[in-house]
Amino acid sequence: xxxxxxxxxxxxxxxxxxxxxxxxxxxxxxxxxxxxxxxxxxxxxxxxxxxxxxxxxxxxxxxxxxxxxxxxxxxxxxxxxxxxxxxxxxxxxxxxxxxxxxxxxxxxxxxxxxxxxxxxxxxxxxxxxxxxxxxxxxxxxxxxxxxxxxxxxxxxxxxxxxxxxxxxxxxxxxxxxxxxxxxxxxxxxxxxxxxxxxxxxxxxxxxxxxxxxxxxxxxxxxxxxxxxxxxxxxxxxxxxxxxxxxxxxxxxxxxxxxxxxxxxxxxxxxxxxxxxxxxxxxxxxxxxxxxxxxxxxxxxxxxxxxxxxxxxxxxxxxxxxxxxxxxxxxxxxxxxxxxx
Length: 340
Ligand code: ASP
Description:
By secondary structure, the protein is an alpha+beta fold. The chain has one domain: Glutamine Phosphoribosylpyrophosphate, subunit 1, domain 1, CATH 3.60.20.30. Helix content is 41%, strand content 19%. It contains ten helices and eleven strands. It has a seven-stranded mixed β-sheet. Strands 7-8-9-10 form a four-stranded antiparallel β-sheet. Helix 2 runs antiparallel to helix 3, helix 6 runs antiparallel to helix 7 and helix 9 packs across helix 10. The protein binds aspartic acid.
């Protein structure tokens, strides 16, 4: 067992260099990392689709990214090694990224068109197929924790806005003042897009093309998928959404089957990308369905949905996925995707 676990660790660390400078998205077939069918434990995280251009980060900024991603990966992985469940590992890893201003989740979330932070998250347990999703939060420090509470402590799957925050308060989940989520970098991104939008309006170009342009250069939604030693899968995703989204817009992240899905029979999936397309395609559930009904392996299923279906519809982004044997599928058609 020890040998198997250290193999997973080596694979994970081997991936670290791809964090900061995501590769150009390859066409089919995407790179394949198929692991031994004997593996009992597996853990994958992503830090969002999109790409930061080489040279746009100072060495110290780059170091921060690497360190934070590594910390999140290792905390989740160690949780699994210590006998915690896949749900525990997913929550702990996502919380670390939510607490860091580097990612578009929790602190550091992007701004809506009217200058607010509105956070979405979800989590799903592959064993029970129970799920929890939260949307439109302004005050919950760790949306993934509230999503888990909705899954485990309420009879519901999805809760939104004020009612959801009231529920968080009742449960003693940490609330913060709205300004906690504010960061200069995300504020500047909003100002840039507002300026562009004004210029575009005078040229009668659409908001959609602006969102697309913005998405191509942005990243930071976070997610994790895990297989624990009890053979149970879990997936979770957390985001601030897309810069300049309309107030009240909800993306794919809290939509079970779109941005997040887990089912012990097939796989666990966490997505990142232009959410509207992921909702329309039920991306995460579609990957699981291809495995379930067409017997595809997890990589092929992920590639089929991302490089064919998503591509054909004009969307972009990517997924991380893991199956019940610990095989990992990673696929993206965006310029890059931060993952480990
Ligand atoms: N999928 C997220 C959303 O549309 C954004 C992202 O993944 O970057 O809200």
